[in-house]
């Protein structure tokens, strides 16, 4: 009887130890992956861009953005970067190579803030540009939105339509709703919206302005300017990210129960970004908002904005935008600058959705470890 009891106890101990071992292994395997990153991700003047837009296709991440020179034309075109690990990026090609465009091409200018959206199995690229001439060296008089399409993310892209709107507009983005309807959003002295038919590339409703930088009753951190809309739907609510350069470069968030609004602030303050009092002081004086009261953020950046969301290494939503080092950054940050630090570079951060609200980590500048 005693031997039988010992045998039973031994078996129970063995069984319990096996359960614990299995549970420990399961816990270890569930957290066996980690992703380490340090912003800025790119540190190379040769592939410097603003307004980074990242899209994942198969096992590869692709990125387009605004190449240098930014403020005056011509810039080289729409540069495509590629990466297998989201950390090491190289140039793949120019989706639009300015040097190869025919003379008098009406979009030969600055190629601002391009985006690529995969909709119904095709790739649609929005490009914001105008024609650079001797009389208009920045191409501002004809700056507008142009829509291109391709069967492959790497191209070739063919012009579908443009200019899409009857006025100056910029920072165009697309959003496909669950019913298949595609919506067109853009900036240009405010934020605008319309429906678009991707077969023709034409708007099917009038372009309507729904938010001004000086909208009555809205916060003063918008008065410098608002731009860069990006729309996503979550749990029946439409969210629109947009940027403002009033206090530096920040990202704010709107929400609505309809893709056409009415839109309201999801948060009374920007949810991400950097603030620097001494940044763009002349612009603040000229705009009459130099007396706004705010405190600087404790980071080494002067710009972290014009964002978009993409699928990251953990299968969740991540944020992309450009990170631009602050030329007047204080101690303890290094007072010497590497050449790449004088140009905007890529920055990424994980995005969290909780209790009906989106949150973006950072902006960070030290190593981050994401376990999944």
Automatic annotation (TrEMBL):
SUPFAM superfamilies xrefs? Arabinanase/levansucrase/invertase
Question: What family name appears in the similarity comment?
Answer: Belongs to the glycosyl hydrolase 43 family.
Q: What's a Pfam family in this record?
A: Glyco_hydro_43
Recite the UniProt keywords alphabetically.
Glycosidase, Hydrolase, Signal
Signal sequence region: 1-22
Hydrolase among keywords: yes
Organism this protein belongs to: Flavobacterium gyeonganense
- Molecular-function GO term, any one: hydrolase activity
Where on the tree of life does the source sit, at the highest rank? Bacteria
- Know the name of this protein? Glycoside hydrolase family 43 protein
